[in-house]
Specification:
The complex is a heterodimer of chains A (about 350) and B (about 425). With about 350 residues, chain A is mainly alpha-helical. Chain A has a domain of about 210 residues. Chain A contains 16 helices and 2 strands. Chain A is globular. The C terminus of chain A is likely disordered. Chain B folds into 2 domains: about 200 residues, Response regulator (Rossmann fold, 3-Layer(aba) Sandwich); about 160 residues, 3-Layer(aba) Sandwich (Rossmann fold). In chain B, helix 3 packs parallel to helix 4. Chain B is α/β, with parallel strands linked by helices and about 425 residues long. In chain B, the strands form 5 sheets. A 6-stranded mixed sheet of chain B has the order 2-3-1-4-5-6, with helices on both faces. Chain B has a 4-stranded parallel sheet with strand order 8-7-9-10, with helices on both faces. Classes of the chains: A mainly alpha (about 350), B alpha/beta (about 425).
Chain lengths: ~350, ~425
């Protein structure tokens, strides 16, 4: 039994100690790739999509996983960003970087307004309200002339795919850095505490609305910036692409499969699931949705807390055995920090930064 | 429990690793093959015929799968017939067999870019088959242009596709703005002549183009538009909009949408007791699957088609239009419609172009397609400077006794239209 979780523990000990270095190495690898043979084509397209989904999953997780507010409307921000750059670049003639910045600002503003109304709700009510926001945004976009109505916008005069590779890579690295940093700050602790017991936190005098809204706006900012880049990358955006309802669910599945409430989980979940999607579409043409459903079901059964969550639980169990083992948990007044690991293993290392 | 968890984790990790490795190695293999010059045409060396692989995506699952199936059937059968007859006699003196790689895009425009890029880079495809629906075709055609590969398509009809100065795309359907015009002509020529119309349009690129075209045309023809509504693609309920049509007492109803909504319209016209002189749906109302789904409610419904199944065009592979129709029917058990015929001609366009070029390169094949002129089961094939075929729509109607009949224009009419459609109280 003492071997249990040994490797997982070692891995987490390493990532916890060297998180920033690890991120720097991964960023370096990403930056170097185009200089050592990665050309525009299918490999770059798939990488861009992997980065994109990782951004979306991590954005969702900041509000859905870290803060415990399960948003079903994240794609509304993606759409706002997507149409903002599409309109500014195509119709106004603004350069992409400027349009990109405006898209980010506008999505944050939108999130502030939407958050003021929806973040008062909790649980299922919040989920339904945010879904409503997404569906309304899609419908409003369909009816507006400026967004191209239902026909959308064709965007052929756009930067090269390499520009978008840099953009999505930069966005992902920046977002990982922000979320990773926040985890070790008071801000991050408050978000986790909101998830675990918001009532208690309010009773302690913490202004949870401020924290929730800030987390929601950061989450929306990255989602909006991703959308702002994606519409031009895809050369076409219409209300179905901009407010893609399938992606709205996929990003949540990615975060949950990878390990909600962690930094590495949503990123790995996005990489893993999207890579599986790409391969399954090639191998099981026409049956991809069935096979993909089976893969998701198997993963959820095998890793009920997500892959990173499950591994962290193993690591925590190892820690737990080292500090007294089973006897402690069997004593009536046992250390509740130890017993907590079963239910919330991924939070057992509270106090330390964790990937 | 813990051990079994660990075992299942190891098993899963092993399987995932194996799949990933297989994926990488497959990609590597294909990538190597694709990186050669003209990989599509390179093939099995000295012995046996060389092959040309055509590739594209199609709506093989999702709302448009019934229509996607028609293209797939036509592609497969035509390629099989060409190969059985000895292959394509290339203009370069070689004989080629045709192969095809067809992926499923689920009619999702966000899958288009990656899938076409994958076909070009990993599968080494040089000659692209277009997808179904305008929204998927738009990003796909951009990939074709960027990679300088010709794309011939029979499934995207929005005029926007051909307004982008894209020299690599060729469309075999009349553009969407023309889809509903002949139906208006027909209704105007009947007695009593149509004076008011209701237009219900789905919220998508194609249907909005159709609506725009027919709106302008009706204005020109003096038909008064008394209901003009759009509805979301995802809806399965048109009852509110059909209620407005009933209340407006419009003479004719034009539904600019796809098959799912054509079926909903036929069913809800009955349940809402909406009586109009003509009810037509732009897409999907002429398939056998539409009639199977709607039963007697589908009777008298009209639909446009770019293809007359009773026409007598010579076809280089099947012999004639009727031979093509019977070949599809005997092979797959369903009647072909214009999607099938357009799909067949996508393959034939490539075949004819391969026969005309002295060297098989994407640019030369593209140039040959620009100047191509031939007849097929679909009709006369030639493209204008934008890359679109010049065709007008015919109008069909489901008639209880005769089945699906061409009713307009009169020159090719199989039966006179049953106009006005009988009221629901008389059926």
């Amino acid at each position: 039994m003492s071997e249990r979780g040994h490797y997982a523990r070692q891995m987490f000990a390493f990532t916890d100690d060297h998180g920033w270095k690890l991120l720097a190495v991964l960023a370096f690898v990403g930056v170097v790739l185009p200089f050592v043979g990665l050309e525009e084509g299918i490999d770059m397209t798939i990488l861009v999509e992997l980065f994109l989904f990782a951004i979306l999953a991590l954005s969702w997780d900041l509000i859905g996983g870290q803060t415990g507010y399960p948003s079903f409307g994240q794609m509304a921000f993606f759409g706002v960003g997507a149409f903002t750059t599409a309109i500014l670049v195509k119709d106004v003639g603004v350069a992409f970087p400027v349009a990109f910045a405006v898209a980010g600002l506008l999505t944050m503003l939108t999130a502030g307004v939407v958050g003021a109304a929806t973040l008062r709700l909790r649980g299922g009510y919040f989920a339904i309200a945010t879904l409503g926001v997404l569906l309304s945004a899609q419908q409003i976009t369909r009816n507006l002339e400026i967004t191209g109505g239902a026909s959308g916008k064709i965007l052929l005069d756009v930067p090269s795919d390499t520009v978008f590779y840099w953009t999505f890579l930069g966005l992902l690295i920046a977002e990982i850095a922000v979320v990773y940093y926040l985890q070790s700050t008071r801000f991050g602790y408050v978000l986790n505490a909101i998830r675990d017991d918001e009532g208690k936190l309010t009773a302690m005098g913490v202004n949870t609305t401020y924290y929730k809204t800030a987390a929601w706006m950061i989450s929306a900012l990255f989602t909006g910036l991703a959308g702002g880049s994606y519409s031009l990358f895809n050369t076409f955006v219409d209300p179905n692409v901009g407010y893609n309802l399938a992606w709205n669910v996929e990003m949540i599945a990615m975060a949950l499969l990878g390990g909600s409430g962690t930094v590495a989980g949503p990123v790995l979940g996005a990489f893993g699931l999207h890579f599986a999607v790409v391969k399954i579409e090639t191998w099981f043409t026409g049956w991809q949705l069935v096979v993909l459903g089976a893969v998701v079901i198997v993963t959820v059964i095998a890793f009920p807390q997500g892959i990173v969550g499950e591994l962290r639980e193993r690591a925590s169990s190892m820690e737990y055995y080292k500090h007294g083992g089973q006897a402690a948990s069997e004593s009536p007044g046992g250390d509740d920090g130890g017993t907590d690991t079963d239910a919330n293993g991924e939070h057992a290392t509270d106090g330390g930064e964790s990937l | 429990m813990a051990d079994s968890n660990r075992r299942s984790f190891l098993k899963l990790a092993g399987t995932t690793g194996a799949i990933a490795l297989a994926g990488c190695s497959q990609q590597g293999d294909n990538g190597d093959g694709g990186s050669g010059d003209g990989a599509t045409t390179a093939s099995s060396g000295d012995s046996g015929p060389q092959t040309i692989t055509l590739g594209g995506t199609m709506s093989l699952s999702g709302d448009n799968a019934d229509l996607g199936k028609l293209y797939k059937q036509a592609y497969e059968l035509t390629i099989q017939r060409i190969n059985d007859a000895g292959g394509v006699e290339g203009g370069d003196g070689n004989t080629y067999e045709l192969e095809m790689v067809l992926r499923d895009d689920e009619t999702d425009a966000s899958k288009s870019k990656r899938t076409y890029q994958e076909l070009i880079d990993s599968e080494g495809i040089d000659y692209l088959l277009g997808p179904y629906s305008s929204t998927v075709t738009l990003p796909a055609s951009a990939v074709a242009a960027k990679n300088q590969k010709p794309m011939v398509e029979g499934g995207g009809a929005s005029p926007e596709i051909f307004m982008q100065d894209n020299k690599w795309i060729f469309g075999l359907l009349p553009t969407a703005d023309k889809y509903a015009l002949s139906s208006v002509d027909m209704a105007k020529a009947q007695s009593p002549s149509a004076e008011t119309a209701a237009l219900l349009a789905e919220d998508d690129t194609f249907s909005q183009s159709t609506a725009k075209g027919v709106r302008a045309y009706m204005d020109n023809q003096g038909v008064d538009l008394v209901v003009d509504e759009s509805f979301p693609s995802g809806t399965s309920d048109l009852s509110t909009n059909l209620g407005k049509v009933r209340d407006s007492d419009a003479d004719i109803l034009l539904l600019a949408a796809h098959q799912k909504h054509a079926i909903v319209m036929a069913k809800q016209l009955e349940s809402q007791k909406v009586n109009v002189d003509m009810a037509m749906a732009t897409v999907g109302s002429l398939n056998q699957s539409f009639k199977d789904e709607t039963g007697a409610n589908g009777d008298y419904v009209y639909g446009p088609s770019s293809w007359a199944i009773n026409a007598d065009f010579e076809d280089p592979v099947y012999g004639s239009t009727s031979d093509f129709a019977s070949a599809i029917e005997s092979e797959y058990g369903n009647t072909p419609d214009y999607h099938s015929a357009a799909g067949e001609s996508v393959i034939l366009t490539y075949m004819k172009a391969f026969e005309q070029v002295d060297e098989l390169t994407p640019t030369k094949v593209r140039n040959a397609i620009r100047d191509i002129e031939f007849t097929s089961a679909y009709g006369n094939i030639a493209f204008d400077e934008k890359g679109v075929i010049d065709k007008e729509m015919l109008v069909y109607q489901w008639q209880p006794e005769n089945g699906k009949q061409i009713v307009w224009p009169e020159a090719v009419q199989q039966s006179a239209p049953v106009y006005p459609m009988p009221d629901w109280s008389e059926r």
